Amino acid sequence: MSMKRSDDLRPVGLTSILDLLGSLLVIAAIALAVAAYSVPGALAAAGVLLLVLSWLIDRRTRA
Q1: Total structural domains in the chain?
Q2: 15 domain-assigned
Q3: 6 pLDDT exceeds 60?
Q4: Disulfide: which of 8, 46, 50, 63 matches 4 by Cβ 3.0-4.6 Å?
């Protein structure tokens, strides 16, 4: 596993930050909706959705 130097990293644009914030807000909204039925279920849903988001971001940056 190689570590990237700061010289190798792409700058993050405003739209990427807004996309990330929007995605996190959607995850929070889904977790709040599930929390009406089950708080542990809401935590589990938020965790799974964060993992999926992380996987999608990593997959996009590797291409």
Answers
A1: 1
A2: no
A3: no
A4: 8
Helix, strand, coil distribution of the chain in percent, nearest 5:
75, 0, 25
Give the closest residue to 46 by CA, choosing from 22, 24, 20, 18. Answer: 24
Diameter of the chain measured on Cα atoms: 47
Q: Is 53 inside a domain boundary?
A: yes
Are 33 and 49 spatial neighbours (Cβ–Cβ below 8 Å)?
A: no
Q: pLDDT of 8-26, one tens digit each?
A: 666 667 778 888 899 999 9
Domain extent at residue 63 = 38-63
Alpha carbons 52 and 63: distance in angstroms, whole number: 17
